[in-house]
Structure formats: C-alpha cells, structure tokens
C-alpha cells in the first residue's frame, strides 16, 4: 500500500434534512403584500423535519448516501457541536470556502482558543437525534461563523493529512458516461442577445481583435462538436473578447457579469491549444505533469468547472481531473495517476497533491484563477503565493496566467499584477463589479425578528419555484433550514460544516427540484450554475457588496431573468446602503427612497468599512487607487476583520 493509500471507506451515516410527502400549502398573501404576486397556493412539499438516513453501501463503498425518507416527524436536529479543532481566525471571511477545510492547514492560526458559544445549545425538536449537541463553538470570522469546540469523537473525520484530524473517506458517486448527461444544459434566456449591447473595454497594449462567432475561433473538430452539443451557438462577449486574447498567449484579467459564460471563455482556448498540441494523458507516470491548473474557492464550484472541462474535452485525448477537500485523498490520487492534462482544484487539496509529488508543474502552461478576486484576498492569497512558489512552477514570464471574476476591487487588482506579466490585458464587459442586469433586485425593510415570517410568506408566495436563501452563518443556515422543514417547506441546506456528501446531496436535491429551497451560506455565493433558480433571497445581507453581487448572480443566468429579494435590517445593514444604491443605479434599477435616505443621511451613514473599493475599470488607468500601499491597506482590513470578530463575541 502506498503511503497515501487508505484503508476502508466505511462511514457513519450523517444526518440531514429532507422531506417526504408533498402537500398543498395554503395560499398566502394573495392580496399582494411585500412579495405578493397573487400566486399563493402553488403547492409545496410538506414534510420536512430532520431525519437520519442510512442505507447500504453504494458502488463506491460509501454507506448511507441514499436518504431514508421515513418518519418526517422524527426531526431533531443533530447539531454539529463538538467538531471543531479550534480552526482559528486566519481568514477574514473564508471559513465557508474550501481552501483548507480538511486539507493542508497552514493558513491562519490553527488551534484558536476562543470558542465560548458552546453552551448556547442547538435547535432541537426533541427528536431522537437532537441529543448530539446543538451548536457548540465560537465565532471565527467576519462572515462566519461559529466553530464548534470540544472533542471530535467521530472517527470518520480523521483526515489523511494530520494524525489527529479526521480521515476523509468520502468518495463521490461515479459520473454518468452517457452523452445526454454529459451535455445536459439549460436553455439560454430571452436576454441572451442583449449581451451584445453591453459595453466592452479591453485595456493594455495590442489586444487581438475579438471574434464574433465560434467558427472564427477555429476550434478543432471534436471541440467544435462538443461546443455545439452543449447548446452554444454564439459566443457571449467575454468569450468573444477573452478567447482570442488567451489564444494569442496573453495574460488576462477578465471581468464580466455573473452567468455570462466566463468558464467557457477560459476553457475553450486552453483545450483548443492542448488538442492542437496533441497532448494526451498518460497513466505511465507516478508524477503527473498537467499543462493547465485551474483553481477556484469552493469544492462545488471547482467540481462544476471540472464537469465543464470534461464536457468540452469529451472524446478527446485531453484528460481533466478534479481535486478538492472533503473527498478521500487516495481516491483522488488514483484518479490523477490515470493521467491528467488539466487539474481543477481547490487550493488546499491542490497544494497537498503537489506536496505529495503526485502533481508536477514543469509542463504547466496555463494557470487560471476563477473567482480571482476571492482567490487573491486575504483568505487565499497565501495559498496562491505558495502555489506560484511551488517547486517547478514556471515563472509568470513562462506561463500564461488568466484571472476571471465578476468583481475586482481595486486593491485586489493591484495585488493580481504580482501574478501576471506586465503586459496583461484587462477585459471589462460592462461595469466592473456590477450586478447582473437580468436580476430584478428588490429590498424589504425588516427587523431581525420579523425575518423568518417574511421568508415563509415569501416562499409560500412563490410556491415551488427554485429559491436560494442566503444567510450569514452556518448556525443560521441550520436554524432556518430546520424552521422551513418544520413549516413543511421542502428545504435543504449547504454550508461549510456539513459533510461533503451532505453538501453534494443538498446540491443534487436542489438541482433536481426535489428540494426547491436551498438555504446557503457564502459557500454557495460564487460561481454555482444551477438551472432555473428563479429567486435569491438575502435573508441576511452580506457585509460586503461583492458578495451581494455574486449571491444574486445565482439567478438571472445566461440571458434568463431572475429575482433577488433582500431583507434589509436598518440596524444591521446600514453600512451596505451606499454600495447597494450604487449597485442598483449602475444596473439601472429603481432605488427605494428609504434606502437612499439610509445611505446618505444619519451619522456615519453609508460608511462601508468592508468595501474594498469599486473599480470602475482597469485599475492601471490610474487615479482611483488609494494612496497607501496595498499591503498596509490589507493590514487595515485585517484589523477591521478582527474588530468584527470581537464585536460578535
Ligand atoms: N455561448 C454560450 N451559449 C449558450 N450558453 C452558454 C454560453 N456560454 C456559457 N453558457 C452557459 O451559461 C451558463 C453560465 O455560464 P458560466 O457558469 O460560465 O457563467 P460565469 O460567467 O462563470 O458566472 P459566475 O460569475 O456566476 O461564475 C452556463 O450554463 C453555461 O453553460
């Protein structure tokens, strides 16, 4: 057995929320109200409650992934107390991101000694599973969260990297191989052609001309067929401009609104080049040397990117592979060793694979940072520096570095320049950091005590339409999901304290419509491309405007329209008011007068400590950078983050 081989894959059955019977909900708010659309009574599932589930092993030897939908009333939220290892405060708002959850753990200060919330107890319905603990732990970051304290007695969580850490045994189910599944896609929406009206700005020297059609991209036959099978007829602006830039060998920082096709904008030219070069994955080497590495901040997002890469590479010799935390390392190593040309990874697990000598960097041509601003903020920047400083990594002059996001605060742009060649091109499709114009944004003034009822009213109104509900903390996610289940709303949840199998199951249930409501923390804010998400609800507004832009971008994708409803609690959200007004105005949407007042009146109104500065365009155009050095700015932000934590304590 190799040093990374792990024995056994047995796991204990995790707990989750789900529901079983479907029943008609009463019609609510048919007279209008805040959300009234006269559509009450659309029917929603009835069962809810949390239950255990267990079943026989699946084909990968995992047990318990099929959800035993019995006894909806058993309820009882297991809580997740006692899990923590004192994960510390090394990141501002990244506890929901996946750089290191169970991966390398050099970030931040492990073994944080805070905690202190353990006695708050959990939300229980007195069910038979409630006894496990409620919510232990203390708040550990600006966005998030409590971290559980105390012991972790669960042997399944022994990690392969650290003696005392949980071992990860989860192996995701095998992917379907049939073309219908591989190329499944949703239809582009009525506003797809309006993408052409968005202003595009390319800055930097000698940009290559844009292409207008996929034919002009001169894709090789297999790739062209795969693009067509994916339902792509015409490139989106970020593809029209981005693809030739990448094909010309230029470094790129690209900004385009959520849901406008950034993934294909980087995948297609990379795959085209690899196919043209005739690369082929070989399983004969103990160290695999990929030509491209793609990193993204969350496991679900990197998996989605991998699926896109796999789709476009289908039937060719180019082999993409994915590595991310929460999955058995041995399983992923075996997959890598089957040969890989494109490695998609979350930073921690990727660095782990490089550290173990399974992934070598000497042939690397492309390094892609998706959600680049997130990958370079305080949370992931050290990992990114470690990645580019890894042995064998070609210098920035000798690789092509590509960055994509819908948001680029100025300070991050400045930092990004460290990773890019000096003559990189900056591509801005529309307003840098702007919200997707296909999302109708509305705001409802609430008090923190009225939010739950408002949410329930809203969900009753929209019936079975797929809705993502964003909350600020993992604890809140559990609490709201439990509440909705008790109210017979078919709900599932995703957050960083759920097991990976639970996270994937939750997404699958949401995607399939089995659970039309997904309660999520920031872990699901970026990148996820889920069909038919009609509504995003900001139950808690985020403390950062970029996060708001990404969250509401889970709807209104690919030319489809969507709606975002945000609960605005003047007591808590005032610091965001000014940024919200800016976002709304730039998206040409109505600004409620009360929001405007809130933004521009009152002591300290609109002051937004966490906003890192709107970049109206390529920061190299100058003028708007703060005077001080980026590093001291980041240090100042750290201080703000720390202060935030302390307030929460
Ligand atoms: N040219 C195209 N024609 C039709 N559909 C497309 C095209 N380009 C992308 N899509 C589809 O549009 C959807 C959104 O694309 P993608 O996820 O790449 O958006 P994004 O810009 O990366 O969004 P985000 O900022 O949220 O990460 C996907 O389902 C994708 O398959």
Automatic annotation (TrEMBL):
Residues 243-426 form the Helicase ATP-binding domain. Residues 95-105 have a biased composition (Acidic residues). Its EC number is 3.6.4.13. It catalyses: ATP + H2O = ADP + phosphate + H(+). Residues 39-49 have a biased composition (Basic residues). Residues 9-20 have a biased composition (Low complexity). Residues 140-167, 618-631 have a biased composition (Basic and acidic residues). One of its GO terms (biological process) is meiotic cell cycle. Keywords: ATP-binding, Helicase, Hydrolase, Meiosis, Nucleotide-binding. One of its GO terms (molecular function) is ATP binding. PANTHER family: ATP-DEPENDENT RNA HELICASE DBP3. Residues 109-121, 128-139 have a biased composition (Gly residues). The keyword Hydrolase applies. It is an enzyme of class 3 (hydrolase). This is RNA helicase. It comes from Sebastes schlegelii. Belongs to the DEAD box helicase family. DDX4/VASA subfamily. Residues 454-599 form the Helicase C-terminal domain. Residues 1-178, 602-649 are annotated as: Disordered. A motif (Q motif) lies at residues 212-240. Residues 21-30 have a biased composition (Polar residues). InterPro entries: DEAD/DEAH_box_helicase_dom, Helicase_ATP-bd, Helicase_C-like, P-loop_NTPase, RNA-helicase_DEAD-box_CS, RNA_helicase_DEAD_Q_motif. Pfam families: DEAD (PF00270), Helicase_C (PF00271). Residues 212-240 form the DEAD-box RNA helicase Q domain.
